[in-house]
Design a protein that fits this description.
Length: 150
């Protein structure tokens, strides 16, 4: 593993322990050259997943895209980074358990919205407004009424 500070290839593992409910391993490493410490995570590689976008283009699944959208939706809301990571892990588990090699982006978006709705309602509305491309205030109000009725 290359050191992120000095780019040396000489690093050693000084501690390993399970992380994320035993689905990954957290490793503390130390660079032999500069002596700085850093953390890496090792996860099992899953089946390559292709996401079918709204315009029918296909692209490889990218966790960072979900993370970016959820982080934006949760900006300045009382949601911790641990809760966000747990939500994204749940979404990934659900998506990968489908065992499909291709999945429409709409399916992923609906799963994210369902999980966000349970986590934080304002974040849910923010995510839904971008994801469902609300055209006007009335569409936005309709979504708010759905939440208030429940």
């Amino acid at each position: 593993m290359k050191c992120p500070f000095c780019s040396s290839d000489d690093t050693k593992v000084i501690d390993s322990r399970p992380a994320d409910d035993n689905s990954s391993i957290r490793r503390r490493r130390m660079c032999d050259k500069c002596g700085k410490r850093f953390t890496t995570y090792e996860k099992v590689e899953t089946i390559p997943l292709v996401v079918i976008k709204k315009d029918n283009n296909r692209e490889p699944y990218d966790r960072a895209k979900i993370e970016s959208g959820v982080l934006r939706a949760c900006h300045k809301r009382p949601v911790s980074i641990n809760q966000i990571n747990a939500l994204i892990d749940e979404v990934e588990n659900e998506v990968f358990s489908m065992e499909d090699k291709e999945i429409p982006s709409q399916v992923i978006g609906e799963i994210v919205m369902r999980k966000l709705k349970d986590l934080e309602e304002v974040a849910y509305v923010r995510f839904a407004s971008v994801y469902r491309e609300f055209k006007d205030v009335n569409t936005f109000m309709d979504e708010l009424k759905k939440i208030l009725d429940k």
